[in-house]
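Need FbpB family small basic protein's 3D structure for a figure. Predict it.
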Amino acid sequence: MRKNRHLSFKDLVKENKRQLLGDQEAMERIEKKLEEKHTKRA
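Structure prediction for FbpB family small basic protein:
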């Protein structure tokens, strides 16, 4: 069940980061996108 309290932006970022660190597949997708961005600029 989701809590109804209002979270600050900082808290939302922390929560999002915690969830992503637990999701290896999502982390791999993000790393791949970042790599593609860097190779396009080079």
